[in-house]
Prior knowledge:
Blueprint (H helix, E strand, L loop, with lengths): L1 E6 L9 E7 L3 E8 L15 E7 L1 E7 L8 E6 L4 E5 L1 E3 L2 E2 L3 E4 L4 E7 L8 E6 L4 E5 L11 E4 L4 E7 L8 E6 L4 E5 L9 E3 L5 E2 L5 E4 L8 E5 L1
Antiparallel strand pairs: 1-2, 2-3, 3-4, 5-6, 6-7, 7-10, 8-9, 11-12, 12-13, 13-14, 15-16, 16-17, 17-18, 19-20, 20-21
Amino acid sequence: MYRGIRLLRPYSRHRARLLCRAMTFATLPLFLIHAAHAAAAFPSFREECRTSPTGVRPLYAAVSDFDLDGRLDIATANFMGGSVSILRGAGARRLQPHQDWPTAPNPAALVVADLNEDGHDDLVTVSASSSQISVLLGAGDGTFAPHVDLPTGASPFGVDAADLNHDGHLDLIATNSSGDNVSIRLGSGVVSDPIQIAQGVLVSTRDGLQYRIDPEAGAFQLVQIQR
């Protein structure tokens, strides 16, 4: 059995939230630990560890208010379940039973972002087995549209969203474990064709611009260099 812990938000002296994730071959519980007040730089935690079931073999989790009720909810990417689970916050540190939404097979990572700029959080997962990104557009009530699958490089295991080219629209980045590169989709409020890029390599986009990764600014920072 493997167990890991992921810190979802930077901890402070007064409050932190940790997500314990467990991985077996069956449906796994999700562990929530609530931080107590701590005088030291690193917080202390209650011994209590509450569990909430998810889909099968969750590998990744993200937190947001998916139904806009002022309570944080949890999304998990379920590798063996081929789905994401949404666990809505019910108050008093409780979660409602999970609802599952299909994705491409074997989702290995998850990111929350408003891709279509409607004010509602959307979900993006990556599938290593099918080399795809799955996009599930959020309705703002905790439900999601059927997933739309988009190709990436070979065997993606990581995904993130950021405005890489500073045009006001979120772009998608997937790390491709079998290709030793990243795939980038430049966003425009709708999804465009992918480009693949490695550090220091020039890429051309559909608008005729060329970009390269700037090593001084850090990985994934794109710099326009010519038309």
